[in-house]
Model the fold of this input.
Amino acid sequence: MKRGLNLFLIICSQFIMIFYGLAQTSGSKNISITLPTVVLLDVEPAGTISMSFTAPTEAGLPLTNPTPNTTKWLNYTSAVTTGGSRTISAKVSELIPGVDIKLKASAASGAGGGTRGTPGAEIILTTSSTVFISGVGGAFTGTGANNGHQLTISLVPNNYANLMSQTNKQIQITYTISGT
Amino acid sequence: MKKVENTVSALLLVMLVCIGSQSKSWCQSLTVSGSNWTVPLTYITEAGKDYVNSQESATNQILLSGSGTAFLWIDGTVKISAHYTADPKWNNNLLIAVKRTGNGTLNSGTTISGNTNYINILNGSDLELFTVHNGCGFCTYTFSNTPMQLQLSGISVTVPSDAYSAKIVFTISY
Done:
């Protein structure tokens, strides 16, 4: 009789334990990774570009502007903290009297992913940095030509009174990605 | 006669306790050894590139050992499940997968099956990885040092820069 009572109590206790869902046996290990901020910028393909005005063949006609150059592509990799954003700016090493050097970036294309930047309107380059792409978040563009932002660089006269004959004038365009 | 009666009672008691409680003691147990895994990064050396998307740990990064108990008419199978939880911060674009790279040491009659390919585990919700079985009438069966490999994928500059850590929790149950 007593044994029967004990058995009954044990059964009851087990069902109580079921209902209270006693923890199953478990153990754990940790996995961790640190992703640092990253910022890398490149212009591809490497090398200089050459652009020349063509002299008019008849008195009274203007110079013929060089065909805008579209061979350069801007590649970048950007890793930012939550909410972070970067801009890309450009400047020239010096100005050419009477000539505007203009720059326009296309929307990012090709390989890549993430929050790539948004190009602004065409800018006239000066010796001070001017932002022409904004809103770069965590992103990568892919490498080489046909990946990233295609650049359109053009030369146009801005004031004939200031024009001077120039030969092999070298201008350096510097691109900078900045922000956190 | 009395001895037989006592033995039967003891068996019943063990069975009831095990069925009822799913307890940690002699019905089933799990030990997780090996080491934590700090995922190495291959640094980006060229503008436009992303990180290598996935990394794998050593094939024996984690070792699982445990036991289950079989009864006369109750199938002697335990299942090993896993999930992860942020500890303290994780990004769910980082995908954690685990696979079993060997059997470890099994006692006589014990078989182990499943999880020989990577299974992505979930945040906070257990997913069954593999089972350990022994059809003996009444016994405690064991597996020890069953090696597990981890994989982390989704590694990208598109994931906000930060230090991330998660706890991978393995659970044994009937």
In short: The two ends of chain B are 34 Å apart (CA to CA). Residues 2-21 of chain B form the longest helix (20 residues). Chain B has one domain: 25-173.
